[in-house]
Amino acid sequence: MTLDALPSHVGALTVLELLAREAPAAAYDELVGAARRAGAGEDAISSLKEALDLALTVRTQLGRRQQREAGLSALVDTARDLTLPYDLDTLLKVITRRARLLLNLDMAYISFYDEEAGDSYVRTADGHATALTVGFRVPGQAGLGSAARDGAAPFWTPDYMADERITHHPVIDEVVHAEGIHALLAVPLRHRDVSFGVLYSADRNIRHFTPDEIALMSSLGDLATVAIEKTRVLSQARTDIAALEQYGSRVKSDLTAAHRVNEVHGRMIDLLLDGSGLTALTALTAEALDGGVAILDLGTRTLAATGDLPEASLTQVAEATLEAQVVGEPIQLTDTGWLAPVTAGAERLGCLLLHAAEPLTENELSLLRLAAGTTGVLLLMQRNTAVAESQVRDEFFEALLSTPQRPLPQLRDRARSLGIDLERPHAVVVIRPEGGSQGRAVVWAASYALRCGGLSSVRGGCLTLLLPSEDPGATARRISKELSPLLGHPVTVGAAGPTLRIEEVEPTYSEAVRCLSALSALGGSGSTASAKELGFLGLLLGDHRNVTDYITHTIGPVIDYDAHRFTNLVQTLEAYFESGNSPTYAAESLHVHPNTVSRRLERITALLGEDWQEPARALEVQLALRLHRTRDTLVAEDPATQQP
Predict the structure, then answer these.
(1) What CATH superfamily is the domain 280-383?
(2) How many CB atoms lie within 10 A of CB 410?
(3) Whether the predicted model's global pTM rises above the 0.70 cut
(4) 549-641: CATH topology
(5) Which fold is adopted by the domain 403-545?
(6) What dihedral do alpha carbons 277, 283, 287, 289 form, nearest 10°?
(7) Is the dihedral of CA 118, 90, 225, 379 positive or negative?
(8) Bridge partners of residue 347, in order along the sequence
(9) Which tens digits make up the pLDDT trace of 172-208?
């Protein structure tokens, strides 16, 4: 039997088996060869190649994700190592060795800046180094380290000798040539906005560092800075212990505080290693500094908070956040209020707000800096994990909105694997930013969806969200209230739902789009509404009028009741409205007893709800009845619908 004669899913299953057992790339090529030898036709070969291409793409993406996770795991292991007590030289050796192994490089070394001499000197090195030894003086204002210090950010080159951006110096170039170095990455080591050294990573091959690799080295640089500062504090503490008798109880108190800083920082690192979140880290910081603590993102939105925090205007916090990010140091708001910048390398992630019970001592201020640094590492780790998860969730949302949809069992399995319960009520919300760049809105939408346990996508220039909600209108208003101030301009929001089944998501999305179109037609740019709130106005003004959906939404339960029980509720409704809402006159026109009409009206109330006779709702029902009658008449008169 040839592959042409096999069921269509056999080839795909074979490809999935290769993918599941992580087969090498050659196995995929062999599968095409085997198919040709079996006499498969070109159509089967083409389908098989398409499946193989998709599998190789998935294999590559999994490889990248595993590489990113391995890097983060190595960074966590490094953080664990740096919490151990070392003297400064031993600590620097641990840092350089970890830096070299983190990116699988040939060399790593650390130089400290000599302010008096105006140059730097190599303090420690790891790897096979001959010319580059401890004590080697690096001329100032030249080389990669100078560029990193001046820019306060990582600086790298794939080929040092060929890079014209770098200020070359004969002494440095000679050592680089002797060591055979090509690729070089320099990360500044900064404390209190002052660069005191540089962490170098070098490779003897031409190599282009990826953004993930640079971010990992930046995070390692931050951890190294904290560990070096902690070691210096402990070293100073040991000196103070030797002079304890001379300096008395004040020195003893300072030593106790320094030990407490070290202890609390170790507990913070343990929280990172245990996979704890911002809430646990915030609680530990609040306990250690005896105050209320909040972690804010760049938009001053609270990510986590604990303890008592006095009211502060959004403008005041925003201005202080900007100042703290610029100076790179905690800013004092009041006698007991502080705002510390949260960063990861050169990337700004937010700030840590503290209101302590008493003014901070110098050791407590150091602990505040350590807490902000630990928060930055945690946010970076969470973001890298969220990016990978967000891609999978985005692909699933696109599958829900695509036409035709994939098989429902497959969609339900994917929903369960992502922890999304689409049997719960969900609203579909479509957002159109009215001016400005979409970039910030897209980032906000992805974050908001993850926060609410929903999904996000960008379709047709608009943001689309699927969110747990029983009230689409309220959800739309809540989104507009949060997003418009963030963007600095209004957004138009249309919503529909709620959905209760996975197959309802796509038609509900279409209804939300029509709602958005209706708002535009009404001149309501910058406003919000749900399809239910617009009612028949949405039907009349939307770009795509769906009469059937409107009839079903308004009087569908009554039509279905008549169809299944052979009753005359629709006819009774028409007679009731035509008689001026009089059951007696309606009974006369229907030639039935008034009690019969009353019982039918009770049944209609049970089907449509208690408010169906309210003026606004009654207008909707009458319009739906007229459309239903007109549609049935047109269908009856259409020759194409007549039976031969």
Answers:
(1) GAF domain (3.30.450.40)
(2) 11
(3) no
(4) Arc Repressor Mutant, subunit A (1.10.10)
(5) Alpha-Beta Plaits (3.30.70)
(6) 80
(7) positive
(8) 344
(9) 888 888 888 899 898 888 877 778 888 888 888 998 8
